[in-house]
Amino acid sequence: MTTDLKKSVILHAGVVLALFVLQFVLPAYHHGNMARIMVLASYAIGYNLLFGYTGLLSLGHALFFAAGLYGAGLAMSQFGLSAGPALVIGVVAGVVIGAVVGGLALRTEGVAFMIVTLMFAQAGYLTILYFGAYTRGDEGFVIAQTERVLFGVDLSAPLVRYFAAFSLFCAAILTCFLAVKSRFGRVLVAIRENEERAAMLGYDVAKYKLGAVVLSAGLSALAGAGYALLFGYVGASFASVQYSIFPLLWVLLGGAGTVLGPLVGTVFMFYLIDLSSGLTTAYMLIAGLVLVVLTVFAPQGVMGEVRRRMWRWLP
Amino acid sequence: MDFGPYLMLAIMEGALTAAVLALTASGLALVFGVMRVVNVAHGEFFMLGAVLAWWVSQLAGGSPVWGFLLALCVVPLLVGVLAAAVDMTILKRINYDPERTIVATIGILYILQQVTLMTYGPEARPVAPPFNTRVALPWFEMSNGALQLYWPWGLSITSYKLFVIGAACVVLLGLWALMTQTKLGLLMRATEQDREMAHAFGIPVQRVYAIAFGLGAGMAALAAVLIVPIQQAHYLMGGDPLLLSFIVVIIGGLGSLPGAILAALLIGLSDGIISVFFSPTLAKIFATLLVAFVLVFRPNGLWGTRNS
User: What is residue A7's predicted lDDT score, i.e. its pLDDT?
Assistant: First the structure.
């Protein structure tokens, strides 16, 4: 192990350990919040793989999150499956949709890629509304507490829920860490930096990009399915444009192309919105302001700045 | 009603949608054409136009005609100036980088929308139309081998709707004249063709950008002032015009004004007809998928050329 790798392993293991210890210290309200944040941060980690490391800006990731959410939710509510298979179905749904959308959308690039992903996500959202008889549209449906049992453990109990969210987050961050440190991840970064050069060096750029979309979609769907199981609510608002913008916001804030950035961004934004929604109904104003300020003044985000100024080895 | 008059009614409603859409979308197409950036906040400039129109007509008081005329003159100007200010303070700083501009305009979208929610509130408010008489439309039928005109019950349109369609045509002609006949239009077209070369020839590119961005937003605001006596002003009303303008601009070929107007006609008419006969949600699903597939397989629009 090189010293840089050692340092980053220690840092990430430390963060994970801190999150684990946190559950014994936090008061009930923040305990529930942190569980939610860890699931949403897993979604952001999935988004970051595509946006931060491959340089592909998607405006349609809500489609993948919703694929997991509805894949798991509908499997349980309509087909009466138990939590384990439902989770698998959610992830598979996300991977399949990711492969199809990725295959089509990757024929375009830049602004067109953003619009195509946005349009596919919008079509997905409208489809959920159209089949309101099963999905119950905007109102959504609730998964009964008695069904939310995985390996004989009730997922809705606070401590178990925290631990399940923690495991989900660990799986996501480990996937991200390994992917980034692997050959695959390095090729993705090469594509981000200079796609033509990567192609000239003999890498099959199209295949790597599709791989990145599918991996990113799979992680997003895992987070979506986890959300359905842990919090028991499935609604169309999770498929709306807003939920495609959120991961972008979290990743930009925390630092695109850093492993810890999504977590930092999600924690920060979650509490910012939580605090401001106590003051005003117009809490999305904060999101808008943060987006503008970030693009103008700090396009690298928090962890990006940390890497630039202090820890150059940060993955 | 028979099918014929019913279809005629759908076409008239479609023509109204098309007229307003052509105005909104040509603003978006203008901005994309000249500046090569996508303005996601375009729908919010539309919304702002409607809300400000309500505000101005409320301030003017008295007869709705004066309030409406005042709104028609002042509101697009106000929104245009605001947009130009946004361009100079935010977009200029990020150097019109296409992707960062989209992220920044998403932020602007939320800021405009939420500030409206905080000040104007969540209510939908109507603006009184300046005039609103019912105009019955004739239909024909074959009787005894001869064409005969008659006025079926329910086949009518209001004079105000006709005025909107007419006004949209006049404004679009004005935009065409501006782009082809004036010095400003020449400067904008030069900047569109080659930003650096235009800069080298001493064209104040920065000012042209601010004007184009303001003009584009002003077009959206104008469309909103025209439509607000028919639709009410609401802080969330910007979503649909944005989506439809996107569809129109992409199908018409990114940045092409004639293409956008032609596509607005196509989308407006078919939207009117499809939503009368089918579910509006289904129509929207098809429209969004159509946009995605056009961008994937025909990136220069349905009738675009390769080299643009």
Answer: 79
Q: Is A58 helix (H, G, I), strand (E, B) or coil?
A: coil
Cβ within 8 Å, pair A288-B109 = yes
Number of helices (H), then strands (E), belonging to chain B: the values are 11, 4
Which tokens belong to B285? 């699903």
Contact indicator for B90, B21 with CB cutoff of 8 Å? no
A18 within some domain: no
What is the three-class DSSP state of B84?
Answer: helix
Closest CA of chain A from B111, distance in Å = 5
The answer to whether the beta carbons of residues B38 and B212 sit under 8 Å apart is: no
Range B3-297 has CATH code 3.30.310: no
Q: Identify whether the C-beta of residue A92 lies closer than 8 Å to the C-beta of residue A71.
A: yes
Q: What token pair was written down for B292?
A: 């995605």
A168 domain-assigned: yes
* Residue A154 structural domain: 27-241
Best interface-test mutation with A: which of B99, B115, B116 has the largest number of A CBs within 10 A? B99
Would you say the ipTM is above 0.90?
A: no
**Number of folded domains in chain A?**
1
| Shortest distance, CA B143 to any CA of chain A (angstroms) | 44
Rounded (5°) CA angle A120-A124-A126: 115
Question: Could B114 and A252 be called an inter-chain contact, meaning their C-beta atoms sit closer than 8 Å?
Answer: no
- Whole-model pTM: value is 0.81
* CA gap B122, B267 in Å, rounded: 29
- Residue of chain A whose Cα is closest to the Cα of B112: A285
* Residue A14 exposed, middle or buried by CB count within 10 Å (0-12, 13-18, 19+): exposed
Distance from CA of A244 to the nearest CA of B (A): 11
| CA B160 – CA B166 distance, rounded (Å) | 10
| Dist. CA A51–CA A58, nearest whole Å | 7
pLDDT, position B75: 92
